[in-house]
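Running log. JK asked me to keep both predictions on one page so they can be read side by side. First protein, sequence followed by its tokens:
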Amino acid sequence: MKLIGITGGVGAGKTQLLAYIREHYNCEIYLADQVAHEVKRPGQECYDSLVELMGSGILAPDGEIDKKAMADRIFGDGELLKKVNEIVHPAVLAYLLDRIEKARRSRKIPLFFIEAALLIEAGYNSIVDEMWYVYASEETRGKRLMQSRGYTEQKISDIMKGQLEEAAFREKSDFIIDNSGSLEEAYRQIDEHLAVLLCQESLRK
């Protein structure tokens, strides 16, 4: 089984490319943001620790952790963010390692993908076989975010400032997908790379 990390700046198009991979290849795909949400649910490993750290004000009426309330509580507080990450990141990694081990034992999954904007910063290079970087220019990403999410230029600028520079992404990645143009062109790059990586067209769905 090939374990692959997929990263890239906000608006680079990781979601669309993963949708294509899910449709055309026999694989498992986990999004770190979704896993982080899962481990923060009531009864899961992070829930009690986060409520103890930030108080019941982060809870929605149904007892779930309210994502916006939690973000508002953390905003501008670097020390609190660090403490939250120290709770959530190990739990996300443990969750993923468990799923990876189960997939390997099954011997039925040739490709296992983990996606997150912060994979490199979180040290996932040490566990994946390959790190993929989805590239698109800042201008292209900005236009996409305005159109798809309605973000303002200021919000886009603030988000991008908090992410790795392109050179750092490239330095730490094994394969770069240029998603500045059409999705079809990006799909072609993926197909060609996986044909070499897997050496078996039979592994396609």
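And the second, directly underneath as requested:
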Amino acid sequence: MNIIKKSDFIESIATALQYISYYHSEDFILAMKRAYELEESAPAKDAILQILSSSKLSAYGKRPLCQDTGIITVFVKQGMDVQWESSLTLEEMVNEGVRRAYLDVLNPLRASIVEDPLGRRVNTKDNTPAITHISLVKGETLQVIVTAKGGGSENKAHLKMLNPSDNFVDHILETIPKMGAGWCPPGVLGIGVGGTADKAVLLAKESLMSPIDIQQLQDLGPSTKLEELRLELYEKINKLGIGAQGLGGLTTVLDVKILEYPTHAASLPVAIIPNCAANRHIDFNLDGSGPAKFYPPNLDLWPKEVWKPNESVTKVNLNDITKEDISKWAVGQSLLLSGKILTARDAAHKKLKKIAELNEKLPDDLDLKGRFVYYVGPVGAVGDEVVGPAGPTTASRMDCYTKLMLDHYGVLGMIGKAERGPETVATIQKFEATYLIAIGGSAFLVSQAIKSAKVVAFPELGMEAIYEFVVENMPVTVAVDKNGQSIHEIGVKKWQEILVNR
């Protein structure tokens, strides 16, 4: 009978979370490297290289892969012969491990969890509580899986109670395009089938915890119906042409995982959960002999090639930008931004809306007219950093504020990730503005372009405060131009036509 010490478990949770914050797993790196080598779409290929280059920087610098360091889910399978040396419950120990990981002074992680979700939505400041699933199994060891899931991909989770006669594959293929690119493809798609509604969703999440092995399955061939379905969906989803970051291309998913469970004769619950380009999860076992040990991945697996801007890329000085300058930009055009930009996420936009409704003055240091707003909540700086990893958040959450920002406040442009809704695209066209995208999953790479950062409004919002960044050669792509052309429509349509004709 093994005895697990409280200190060993808490240390293992904290170390695991630090580890997955800056190391991609080897299977993910190899899958992304293969996707990069095969990719024919120039924008998608560039996006994948940015993600891989940023990943390598994170691995060497031990700083987060993504500014959204996630909501934590922990799966614990406890052997029935295990005993604990602890005065805390298992969930309390998990939360203490999370707390220690996120408040680590050498690599502090962004706290994103808010309590009172239907009311004040106040940040808990240490990213607790985690979501903990506990099950009892045979044996005398403790099996643990730790995962950190970003809001952009978690928000794309989908559940539908199908009829037993409904076509499972058709349902998946109809749903994927509706998810948009806010989940930061390419990534892994998890699917749970059967049980009840809650069981199907849990199966989908659990399926994401296994290694990427679709290439091995292709080489060996399927031996079960589920393996046949995985291969079929992998091929058909990638033929949708969505591509990296929704820019159009060959690789949308790196793997498709499916778990199933017996269900009611009248039911066919199907849950879909994507894992983003951060792909953070790790497992370990404890047997009472001490805390878990984690070893760095092989740093030689990353491509030798690193991302750098093309010499022909247009350089933009944001400090004297005009609408006339913006009118010359074409959808899909790459830009390097220099100058001052402002940041704002959901909470800041909500405050700006209230100020406008009450006809109040903006804070003294905040002037939005003629500015570009970057949708980001950065990780806190350490050492000589001016800011921590600072990749874009999903722009569509700010769609409901776009008219306010362009009309009332006079903003010229916005920077985020993924597509905008049709009404928002029309609003951008009406005000002759623009929407630019930075690459989701390249947070550390983007942060290297930020030369200074200061809070100019709403410091009480923490990471959602409004910052003023001074950037130098920050890489972006024109996603919506002043004519209402959208790269997320044009790129996907182009590659759908190419793939259909192959």
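Observation for JK regarding the second prediction: The CA atoms of residues 161 and 302 lie 41 Å apart.
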